[in-house]
Amino acid sequence: MTASKQDRHLKAAHQILASLGLPRAQQNERSAICLLALLNLTPGKPWSKSANPLIGITPIMEWVRQHYDKDYAPNTRETVRRQTMHQFCEAGIALYNPDQPNRPVNSPKAVYQIGPDALSLLRTFGTPAWHDALTSYLAERETLVSRYAKAREQHRIPVRIAQGKAITLSPGEHSELIRAVIEDFAPRFAPDSVLVYAGDTGDKWGYFDAHLLAELGVDVEVHGKMPDVVLHYTEKNWLLLVESVTSHGPVDGKRHAELAKLFAKSTAGLVYVTAFPNRAIMSRYLGDLAWEAEVWVADAPSHLIHFNGARFLGPYGP
What we know:
11 strands
């Protein structure tokens, strides 16, 4: 066993937890390694060979020690149970006592098992089928982040992200503009593009395929600096980085530099876009908009405004 094989699986598990919409408190090494234990995914074992054993907290910790050289103290059992496995069950990733649902709470015989839908999804990880499988999986269920925020969000906005697939965003003008970018801008100017990321004012990420972004060379852990929408225009291998502006935050010179740094390792060309709901709001920011970028206005969706440069809707070199 090599450390690199261990690290690859741990990094992939982190990406999966982000893509599945687990809260940030569960996007850590403890949760990543528990996911691997649920799948009995030892270092070097392909994701397609993921299994679904029945396993308790103590056996999980023993498995982790044996296969990933992580020695969790016995007094961390409750942390694993309350801060990882509980959320896995709430998110539908894992089942609690599927062999005996009436087993007493806190029984020493309590076991967990990866859910069948999650198992089918994770067996596609690292294959061309992953993105479509993830999209279908998320379209049929609410992410845990969204569920935790539901008390604050009574009327969410549906957004079509693929044929017959949708996510929901927090209500408000900003989310309406994000929906317009995905449903109106993308089909016109980046047809058949793949949604990589869509932010949400409520939880900062309505949709995120962390693995796809990593495949394009960008491994993002801090979501606060992400643009509002990231689209992969596969035909041209471009990443469209879109800021949707209703009250603040266009792609100005400072933001252009921040995004260039954040996506510096991207193997896809970078295209910077600012989206406005109308020209009245756009007019407030004309003096701030960065050159070598694009501007799209939702109330005139078939038009694009190009700010200088030798290309029209295309990436620029370093």
